[in-house]
Amino acid sequence: xxxxxxxxxxxxxxxxxxxxxxxxxxxxxxxxxxxxxxxxxxxxxxxxxxxxxxxxxxxxxxxxxxxxxxxxxxxxxxxxxxxxxxxxxxxxxxxxxxxxxxxxxxxxxxxxxxxxxxxxxxxxxxxxxxxxxxxxxxxxxxxxxxxxxxxxxxxxxxxxxxxxxxxxxxxxxxxxxxxxxxxxxxxxxxxxxxxxxxxxxxxxxxxxxxxxxxxxxxxxxxxxxxxxxxxxxxxxxxxxxxxxxxxxx
Length: 249
Known about the structure:
InterPro entries: SAM-dependent_MTases_sf, Small_mtfrase_dom, tRNA_Adenine-N(6)_MTase. This is Methyltransferase small. One of its GO terms (molecular function) is methyltransferase activity. It holds the Pfam family MTS. It comes from Caldalkalibacillus thermarum (strain TA2.A1). By secondary structure, this protein is α/β, with parallel strands linked by helices. It has a single domain (9-242), classed as Vaccinia Virus protein VP39 (Rossmann fold). The protein has eight helices and eleven strands. Helix 3 links the parallel strand 4 (70-75) and strand 5 (97-101).
């Protein structure tokens, strides 16, 4: 049942000793997914967590090392959904993680509104009209807002979250104005933000943002996170987060 397909490989996730099925022909998890999994607030025991744009299941699997809450994931691409399901089985996480092959825009019709404690999302970063779209359909869908816009993510998260529930999002700093504007539109008050810099002398290339449904205005800026040293090694702070020794909560 968990046998690898012809072009697939088995990788280890960075913490928790979990394995994940990946392929060079589809979008694989990267540092942004790892940081989001370590940034999201999670209930420790009970609760419900939903990961939108779940891909091959990397974020649900990593979240499962931090909580005993029920975790679900929504992924529109059949290939990635199938890989995620097999990775969940491979790690014996079927009792905690459930994947859904679904367009996230249809999620409010399939799940109980106002019933989730946390929603996470690593969405496509680029508007359709931006940049050159990849000829590989799997990469194009993962990178460009072909089937999922930032507005869609905010609308669905706001519908699924209970009052005071939290959305954790990773994106590009260039979209911060859009992120904050849409959060406020959908009553997801920005509460925490962390800018990630590739190197100390480079502009930030990633941002982690948390919003609380019907929360009070009170945005907390976390210390900046530098990813690489001048020698292209992970910094000490990044290593602690990447290997699960500390979180960004």
